[in-house]
Design goal:
The complex is a heterotrimer of chains A (261), B (268) and C (284). Chain B is mostly helical and 268 residues long. Chain B has 10 helices and 2 strands, in the order αααααββααααα. The longest helix of chain B has 32 residues. A 6-stranded mixed sheet of chain C has the order 6-7-8-3-9-10, with helices on both faces. A 4-stranded antiparallel sheet of chain C has the order 2-1-4-5, with helices on one face. In chain C, a hairpin with a 5-residue loop joins β1 and β2. Classes of the chains: A mainly alpha (261), B mainly alpha (268), C alpha/beta (284).
Amino acid sequence: MNQTNPPENNIEAKPAPVRSWQSRGRIFGIPVSLIAIWAALFVAASAVPALPVPGMGGMITVNAIMTAISGVVLGPAAAVANMAGAIIATILFPFGAFFGPISFLTATVGGLIAGLTFANRWKLAGAIELLLIASWFVNPASWQPYMYLVPLPYTGIAVLVIFIKPLREWARNQILTQNKVWMWPALFLFASIGHAGEYLTSNSMTNWMYNLTWQYWIPTLPYWIGVDTVIVVLSMVVGVGVLIGLHRARLPHASDLYIKK
Amino acid sequence: MADVGYINQDSFLHRLDARTKLILMLAILVVVLVFTDPIYVIAILFLVLGAWKLAKLPLNMVGDIFKYFTGIAVIIFVLQAFFYPGETNLLQISNPIPAIGFSGYITLQGVMYGLALVLRLVVIMTVAPLLVMTTPMSDLMLALVKFKVPYRFAFILTTAMSLFPSIQNRAELIQQAQLCRGVGDFESGNFFVRLRASASILTPLILGAFRDSQILDVAMSSRAFGAPIQRTFLLESHFRQADYIFLAGSCLSLVGAVILRIMHLGVV
Amino acid sequence: MDRELIIHGENLTHIYPNGVEALRGVTIDIYRGEYLAIVGQNGSGKTTLAKHLNGLLRPTHGAIIVRGIDAGKAKVSELSRIIGYVFQNPDDMLFCNSIEEEIAFGPEMIGCSKEETKHRVDEIIQVLGLESMSDQHPFALSLGDRQRVAVACALSMEPEVFVFDEPTTGQDYFGGQRIMSIIDQLHASGKTIIIITHDMQMVAEHAQRVVVMSAGQIALDAPPEKAFTQLEPLETLSLRPPQITRFAFRMGWTDHAILNVQQMLAAMNGSHASSKIETGGEAK
């Protein structure tokens, strides 16, 4: 060609930082399209109120289930997907967002810890889990009587699964091998990690921002444990259905990345 | 792209660059979390409501938002009024009840602190809509990209935003189909039953969406998503004088807030 | 009239929450054993009308009676034993982990015994030729197969009336033919069939009664050979009768629509045709 190119042909493609085409279309190995779809699902689930928060006008929505299972479906990419979904949900339904512009953190952290654990990056997952626990216990409000009980049940399960190698690997293997029976308890464990991550982030933020005292937390604790159990059990049911479906219909998901060849 | 929540007006806030507004929002958020003296928080609240008014946004929406939070606001206030370890006793309610940690008195500090937390809640709840209602979604996305948020994330946000209504429709169809197949509990008043019913919609909804994502993936690839070059943008944004003024203001107020806090001002 | 009235809609009006008036005073009677096609443009109210039959939508005004039950109030799960509804997109209907589970789901939900459920599942699998895929995940099947599974799900409830929403959309010719032959079989076994469709060829070949909807009202209600003579009203509704029918019109055989090749041949020969078609023959 001669030098008098029309301007529209003059677009010089600037090379971007070296990354393959494949990897640029993916985050943590999951296609961006899938992450976007998950985010859209998350938004839709955020519009469905499920359980009331005691004494408050807000509601826990079905997105709690999405958060709890996001880790085993998408791996660490769940954090990105949940974050995007939660940001949009905050914009569309500000009435459900207790923490204003930073409400998205709860679902993000839940998906991140469960996703990292499922990806067997347990050191990182454990570090974040410990940071999260610290963020609760560093606050003077948590030194009040019985406050250590609030995060205990499901965060306890999360800590056990993340740090005890045989338990973690057993749970991962049941899911990766699609064991018909043991997949259920394994999903229960992973849903606990995801949900506990969300729950503790949200509680910690509540304490730092609004300083609810033990006089609120302790009387409502049985209700919270009930809510957690309902959410984790439902997440297990949905999660098993989704994982079996994804596997049998050969749709891409996180398990594909972690099955040893 | 649907500009969800955007209210088209001509105001100084609408004209500000989306980046400026994002920083402003975060600055307000940080500052309001620094102070626990209601006087300071009221000042911030008036700033936010003033901006709300100047942006010609309907003020009654503040009331709409707060309606959902009166419950938590009352709880926050009552807890602090009763249980905050203050010095200046205002009112004796009863004898001390150690079992629930109640001194018997409502203290001035407790009331002030409770009030500050409630006002903080109002500020936090009203600051995000202020950004969303004055900024078209495309500008917001551009601002994120300019802040070096990876374009992929901005893409995920916009795609999710435009896809979720069709997912809602899909959810409704699945619910109808399940009703036809004999599942009767969507009409139930019991929320545990309803929750179980929503869970049974989730599984096919997620699976269906995952399959659709493969089509989306092809559509994206065929339009060079992820091509290894630096992408360009049709829309551009530029800072004006007002943006610099507001940015400087945000930085100053952040520094000021920290200094005041170190001097132990603005806390109960 | 000796036919048994099975569905009676009286002055049905439906206004969606967003204010759209999808039905504006529809009155319709459907009799046992009919083979009915509801046609019309997008947004004309076809699907809205059909969803009133099994309680998925409730009339804003008017009444709908299905076999003596007020479908404006009855539970969907109750009506689903009478009306089987096959959705346009089979994926909306399928949520179990295998075809067998999928077909068994409905009967289990309405409280059939284990033996009865098993019996129904086996029979349906055999009738629809799903043997080779009975333990597969629905999402692993092709669209045509999923469509058949969706029909199987409706079939398992053993309803008297079947509603098919766009049964051939998105399918190739043979896939469409396959579904239509299943529907024809159902009709032959005495079921009442209601099809919602755009496909005029299919209406011409299969239906015995055409209900044309326009802007939430019934614009035309007649057998296809009558309905398709109304070329101009149909044209204003963007509905075009099949090519062969329009061709016959061009030929000047206008008083009785010709619906298929056999009728056309008969009309051209003039010899074996019925009296009405003979007039067409004379025009030639």
